[in-house]
Inverse folding.
């Protein structure tokens, strides 16, 4: 699958996971915390939602599991990284959202 | 915490749990560690929602992917898959159709408020069964003593009255008398005006209710109908209300357009213990069960038997759900059909299971390898289960058109014979029916895939890897057992169809003892006030026949006999082999000691009756024109009567007197009639024939149709339309107001009697045929697999000199052993269940060698044909080719 638009719109949880992995690789709990922080607690993921989405993102090739981890880290933790294709999909989703916001603003302004 | 969370993780598919379970637990524990106090409670709420949603999502994703793979696997064998899907579609469709019929017949709710608490109350002899009508006086005692009922109501069977009113010609309408509690008990509200009150009832028959249908038909739905006067059989009555149409559906008041009140005052003429002629119904008090109500009714009946031994000893009372009373006739049609369609479904499931087992066999090596390489057994099991669903889902979808066609076919048959289906419009693919269909599909999917899944997950690695490409599952006892089971079920169905076919053929071949062709019949209706009046109030339920009846009969026959297209004409109270509800009567013969066995059937006939029907009169004379009112009373008896009661002696000149009616006079026997078949199931029964002119004037309710609904018989070669006009003209010259129903050939009246039996026969034969087809597909499929598996062996045999005949015989023998085993098992089950057969299949003898032989022959023939094709294929193999490949 090479066309990001085929995966749009992304489910909100998947979108937040991709964004969270945008700046650095993270393990599951870190993604959970990052999403909560960035959304001011408005969007909180549970472990089940997190891992069912991770499973799907992995199978779609949007993220990958990496073996590199910081020293002294808990060995049981699994780290994930966004792929190049994942970035393209996340960007396409952002564009879609932006355009929706623009249209909504214009429509309200006209009223 | 950890343990609870890990327990909840079991909601997820095993692979997901293995992959992410420990991570998820770690994340949750981290969250839990950081939360405190109320936040912890919130975390648990959030987690529970998160887990259930996630599990659902994951399970459906896994199921969808399993199904996708299963579909892909099945596409590799399109022929076998299509057969399996079609088998299942037929099985599920037939069940859905019958469920729809069940819903609108046996399980149909009555159109009344809280229908479950409504019961019918019947009186029956202590020794014996059946459900009979009641004494009105008994009803008063139930009402006074029984605590089980919130309401009790009394009603008459619908009768025909003549109604006149301004602007309406005299016409016959259905009439029913009901006690004032009748409509409130059923929870019906008046469409207009009001229902009867106790006061109306006390005032006698001065008020009436009319149906909404009649209100629209005859009074144009005018709102000023209330207070309008009508004349019913000569009595002036005031309309006080209109009964809503919902009531039409109720069989309690079939075809009734006018209702009158029943006066229940103990001094009323209605109240007596002479004739059981009233229907009774009640509504159970809340919390009272049917057995409780029945215990109470039984107790009261016992008390009444002590107080009124003359009238009540030997009788008891019971209640049954009103719905059962209404739908009971359908139970006898639908229950055998339900059993038959369940059989068809089981056979279809067995076929699909066999296919899946064969598929599992071809995948043995693959499955064994995957298991060896670490695939979870659960996953393999799920895959094999998905194969079942991959067949069941398209099967269920395809079953809907099958069900639709099945319902149409059922309604077509019900209409064609006709068996009078009350709620035909409600039979269709409703939501509950669709839900049922889906449930059946799930059950079928699980049933079919259970055995393959279980076997597939127990594959022994080393054995499987040692086996050849195809494995040996077709030789497995389970697959053979399934085919044997299919044949056993088919044998049961074939035998039941065979029993009915044989019973029908036997009935066709009966010696009738009369010639129904070319006789046509018309049922006349002389209930109007011109011919019969309601008897004085002291004889409630009685009618007084007017001298106009024999006069009308004489003039009509004289007029018809002059017509050139009438060969002969006569009237009679009954037609041979057409059921009539007239009870027989006890009698005494002068000079012979009275006996309780002296009881015979009765018939009223005119001159020419036996001649028209071609029944000989071997001794004495037939009842003739001279036997009119005012002459000494005479009678004829049939040969069965002479044999039964007179030991074969000549009865001519002897005198017999019917018992139980003070107006009866002794009758001199003037002739003997040859026996003819009076019903389909029984031969001739002892019968007394009398003249219309020699009858008492007062007649009780159950004998009224005997005198007032004569059957006109005309022997003619004229067309139906011509004879209809002849009869119409002849009747209207005598009584222009008397309606003349359509003329019907006697042959078709006799056929009507067997409509329900033939309806049964057709449906059952159809289902048996379907079962046979599916069973043939089953055995054909199995033998095909056997041939494929044994090709190398067959190749060797052929190389060693076996010819084609040997090979065909080898394969046929294998198949026929299975078919014969099924046949024996099916025959044994049929014989074991013969009581059920006798109960649900009309007019059949359960142990019927002809039916069993016929069924066995058809079964073996079809099995042989189904095995022949794979056998031919085996025989056509080129041994060199086969040996080279293996």
């Amino acid at each position: 699958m090479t066309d990001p638009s085929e995966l749009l719109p992304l489910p909100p949880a998947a979108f937040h996971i991709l964004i969270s992995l945008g700046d650095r690789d993270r393990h599951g709990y870190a993604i959970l915390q990052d999403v909560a922080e960035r959304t001011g607690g408005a969007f909180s993921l549970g472990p089940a939602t997190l891992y069912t989405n991770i499973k799907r993102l992995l199978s779609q090739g949007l993220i990958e599991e990496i073996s590199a981890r910081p020293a002294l880290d808990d060995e049981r933790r699994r780290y994930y990284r966004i792929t190049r294709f994942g970035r393209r999909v996340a960007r396409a989703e952002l564009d879609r959202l932006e355009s929706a916001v623009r249209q909504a603003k214009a429509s309200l302004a006209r009223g | 915490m950890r343990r609870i969370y890990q327990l909840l993780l079991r909601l997820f598919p095993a692979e997901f749990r293995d992959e992410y379970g420990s991570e998820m637990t770690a994340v949750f524990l981290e969250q839990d560690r950081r939360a405190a106090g109320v936040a912890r409670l919130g975390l648990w709420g959030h987690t529970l929602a998160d887990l259930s949603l996630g599990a659902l999502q994951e399970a459906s994703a896994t199921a969808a992917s399993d199904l996708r793979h299963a579909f892909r696997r099945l596409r590799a064998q399109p022929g076998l898959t299509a057969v399996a899907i079609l088998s299942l579609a037929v099985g599920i469709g037939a069940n859905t159709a019958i469920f729809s019929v069940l819903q609108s017949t046996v399980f149909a709710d009555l159109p009344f408020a809280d229908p479950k608490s409504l019961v019918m109350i019947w009186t029956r002899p202590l020794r014996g069964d059946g459900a009979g009508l009641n004494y009105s006086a008994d009803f008063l005692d139930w009402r006074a003593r029984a605590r089980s009922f919130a309401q009790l109501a009394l009603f008459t069977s619908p009768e025909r009255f003549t109604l006149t009113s301004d602007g309406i010609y005299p016409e016959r309408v259905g009439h029913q008398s009901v006690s004032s509690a009748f409509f409130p008990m059923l929870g019906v509200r008046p469409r207009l005006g009001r229902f009867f009150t106790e006061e109306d009832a006390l005032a006698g028959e001065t008020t009436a209710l009319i149906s909404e249908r009649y209100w629209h038909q005859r009074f144009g739905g005018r709102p000023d109908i209330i207070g309008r006067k009508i004349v019913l059989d000569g009595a002036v009555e005031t309309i006080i209300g209109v009964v809503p149409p919902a009531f039409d559906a109720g069989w309690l008041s079939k075809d009734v357009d006018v209702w009158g009140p029943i006066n229940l005052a103990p001094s009323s003429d209605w109240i007596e213990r002479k004739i059981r002629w009233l229907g009774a119904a009640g509504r159970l008090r809340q919390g009272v069960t049917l057995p409780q109500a029945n215990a109470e009714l039984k107790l009261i009946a016992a008390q009444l038997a002590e107080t009124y031994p003359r009238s009540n000893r030997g009788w008891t009372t019971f209640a049954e759900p009103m719905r059962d009373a209404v739908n009971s006739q359908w139970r006898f049609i639908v229950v055998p059909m339900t059993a038959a369609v369940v059989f068809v479904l089981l056979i279809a499931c067995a076929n699909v299971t066999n296919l899946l087992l064969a598929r599992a066999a071809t995948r043995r090596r693959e499955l064994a390898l995957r298991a060896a390489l670490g695939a979870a057994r659960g996953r393999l099991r799920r895959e094999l289960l998905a194969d079942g669903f991959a067949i069941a889902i398209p099967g269920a979808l395809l079953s809907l058109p099958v069900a639709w066609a099945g319902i149409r076919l059922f309604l077509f048959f019900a209409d064609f014979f006709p068996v009078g289906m009350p709620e035909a419009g409600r039979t269709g693919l409703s939501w509950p029916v669709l839900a049922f269909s889906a449930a059946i599909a799930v059950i079928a999917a699980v049933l079919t895939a259970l055995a393959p899944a279980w076997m597939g997950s127990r594959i022994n690695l080393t054995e499987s890897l040692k086996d050849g490409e195809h494995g040996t599952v077709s030789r497995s006892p389970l697959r053979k057992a399934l085919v044997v089971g299919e044949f056993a079920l088919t044998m049961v169905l074939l035998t039941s169809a065979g029993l009915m076919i044989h019973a029908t053929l036997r009935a066709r071949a009966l010696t009738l003892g009369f010639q129904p062709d070319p006789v046509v019949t018309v049922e006349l209706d002389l209930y109007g006030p011109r011919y019969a009046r309601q008897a004085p109030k002291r004889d409630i339920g009685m009618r007084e026949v007017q001298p106009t009846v024999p006069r009308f009969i004489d003039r009509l026959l004289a007029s018809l006999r002059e017509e050139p297209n009438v060969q002969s004409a006569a009237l009679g109270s009954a037609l041979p082999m057409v059921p009539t509800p007239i009870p027989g009567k006890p009698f005494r013969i002068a000079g012979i000691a009275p006996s309780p066995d002296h009881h015979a059937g009765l018939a009223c006939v005119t001159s020419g009756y036996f001649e028209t029907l071609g029944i000989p009169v071997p001794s004495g004379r037939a009842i003739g024109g001279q036997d009119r009112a005012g002459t000494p009373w005479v009678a004829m008896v049939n040969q069965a009567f002479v044999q039964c009661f007179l030991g074969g002696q000549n009865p001519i000149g002897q005198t017999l007197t019917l018992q139980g009616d003070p107006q009866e006079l002794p009758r001199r026997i003037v002739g003997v009639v040859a026996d003819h078949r009076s019903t389909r199931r029984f031969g001739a029964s002892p019968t007394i024939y009398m003249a219309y002119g020699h009858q008492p004037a007062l007649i009780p309710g159950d004998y009224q149709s005997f005198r007032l609904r004569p059957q006109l018989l005309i022997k003619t070669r004229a067309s139906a339309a011509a004879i209809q006009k002849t009869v119409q003209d002849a009747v209207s010259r005598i009584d222009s107001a008397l309606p003349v129903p359509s003329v019907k050939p006697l042959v078709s009246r006799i056929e009507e009697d067997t409509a329900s039996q033939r309806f049964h026969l057709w449906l059952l034969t159809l289902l048996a045929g379907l079962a046979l087809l599916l069973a043939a597909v089953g055995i054909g499929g199995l033998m095909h697999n056997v041939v494929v598996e044994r090709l190398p062996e067959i190749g060797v045999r052929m190389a060693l000199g076996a010819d084609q005949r040997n090979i065909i015989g080898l394969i046929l023998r294998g198949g026929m052993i299975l078919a014969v085993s099924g046949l024996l098992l099916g025959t044994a089950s049929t014989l074991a269940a013969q009581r059920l057969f006798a109960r649900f299949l009309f007019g059949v003898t359960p142990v019927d060698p002809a039916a069993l032989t016929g069924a066995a022959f058809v079964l073996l023939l079809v099995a042989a044909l189904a095995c022949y094709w794979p056998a031919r294929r085996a025989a056509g193999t080129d041994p060199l080719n086969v040996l080279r490949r293996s």
Remarks:
- Chain A has one domain: 10-110.
- Chain A touches chain B through 19 residues (CB under 8 Å).
- DSSP finds four helices and three strands in chain A.
- The CA atoms of residues 11 and 95 of chain A lie 15 Å apart.
